[in-house]
Amino acid sequence: MMTSCKGQTREPVVRPATQADRFYTGNAKELSDEVDSLLALHSHSTVYQNVAAIIVPHAGYYFSGNVAASAYMSLDAKKRYKRIFLLGPSHHEWLDGASVNTEADYYATPLGQVRVDHETAVTLTNTGDTDSDCVFSYRPEAHDREHCLEVQLPFLQRLFAQHAQEVPPIVPIIISTNDYRKLKRIAEVLKPYFTDDRSAEGRSQGENLFIISSDFSHYPAYDDACEVDARTGKAIETGDVEEFIATINANAQRGMKNLATSACGGFAIITLMMMLDENYSVKHIMYQNSGDIDDHDHSRVVGYHSFAFLRKQPGEFSISEADKKLLKDIALQSIKDSLDGKRIAQPTFNSHLSTLNSKCGAFVSLHKHGRLRGCIGHFGEDYPLHEIVAEMARAAAFEDPRFMPVTKDELDDIDIEISVLTPMRRIKSLDEFELHRHGIYIKKGRRSGTFLPQVADEVNWTKEEFVGHCSQDKAGLGWDGWRDAELYVYEAIVF
To answer: At what angle do helices 222-238 and 241-253 cross, to 10 degrees?
Structure first.
């Protein structure tokens, strides 16, 4: 029995597992085994201690379960989250707002029930001084048949069960509006829960976790899906909501055959990105599409990405959005000046307040219509960042031996990606090295070699294999040569 704030009792309301035997099996034992096996595929993946949010797909487990598991295994399931906000799109009803389930006390799956944070759900629907200011309501039809949130629950149940914990209470929210003002208002209401949930007395109440449910490209051919999903994924990695919206719109205007959408959960992703600031970084975890599953049909596929959004730790090296924009301007101007036969211009900025004067390495990659057009980098901490970016942009455009030099006619079609390497930190043991998060630099005598963090996203190596290959293939020290060499780690900020 449930007791209301007025002391009345009632039977708890359970939202049934409407998608069992559709998107996942309804047999509890088979479901448990399937989810456990998917999670086990990522048992060697990096676990981040500071995850604020993840983006996960919501297709049938056969198709997207592997990518979903990669996101869930980035979480520290031992952490005591206060609550989990589940945000996803509406596949059946147009809401022109957000619907939060204030009726259900529990969501059921074949594995049991997950409690709803009813108090927080009701609080959200009561925000706003006027009807026009209140963007949250409860619309039963938005939740009754919706699968995008339900399919996340078995993953949460099995993940937390690994540490004998129950799933923290959930706040189920369906977002369905293309009104920018309303999306911004939704983000404003949710942001206090996203940044730091505090009591009225100012005491920290514990971290919340946000789970954003979204698939990506729908129904283009395999190669087209890889191209459009790469653009969308890179836009999310920038952390810039305007960049994401512009990319989604550009994808739609390209006239790609059979492309119905490039992110079905785009409104929920926009809401999340509106809550980001310089205190967060974005980590791409995995990409597949349905054509990768048992060599499935390549003529019409659906794309699946997973991402983790990380809270930065005190003292952590970071680059503001303003400095990122300035670095991109510096890179573009460097290429233009070189095409015009001019010397690279010196940028104007406040060197005392900007990280652009920090001495660190950087790589500049050029893409044309989603395909690599040049990439050159400098690994070291001997020149200011703004100088490295300018020089590497020029080198990527004109000195990459794999490509012909960039011409003026191409410039409007060139996209610039910058990877800033954070200052290196020496480590004494591989226990200090985090796969996917850290790059490794190995040095012994005059020999040295490095792998960028992104390399781990392209291969299926363990931590030891990652370092062994770097030692052997890059530093020329042999497979075990790293064991008596100097080891350094760094991160890459990609935008």
So the answer is: 160
| Residue given tokens 């147009």 in the structure block | 94
Summarize pLDDT for 158-195 with one digit per residue, the tens: 999 988 889 999 999 999 999 999 999 999 999 999 98
Q: What are phi and psi of 336, to 5 degrees?
A: -65, -45
User: What count of Cα atoms within 13 Å lies in the side-chain half-sphere of residue 449?
Assistant: 19
**Range list of H helices, 239-378:** 241-253, 266-274, 321-339
Characterise 62 by phi-psi region: left (phi > 0), alpha (psi -120 to 50), beta (else).
alpha
pLDDT digits (tens, 9 = 90+) for 233-288: 999 988 899 999 999 999 999 889 999 999 999 999 999 999 998 788 888 999 99
Cα gap 243→175, rounded to integer Å: 20
CA quadruple 466, 469, 472, 474: dihedral, nearest 10: -90
Which residue(s) pair with 55 in the sheet? Answer: 212, 307
Packing angle between helix 266-274 and helix 180-195, nearest 10 degrees?
Answer: 60
**Beta strand spans in 352-467 (E):** 362-368, 371-378, 414-421, 425-427, 439-444, 447-451
DSSP string, 185-243: HHHHHHHHHHH--B-TTS-B----EEEEE----BS--HHHHHHHHHHHHHHHHHT-HHH
- Distance CA(125)–CA(481), nearest Å, equals 60
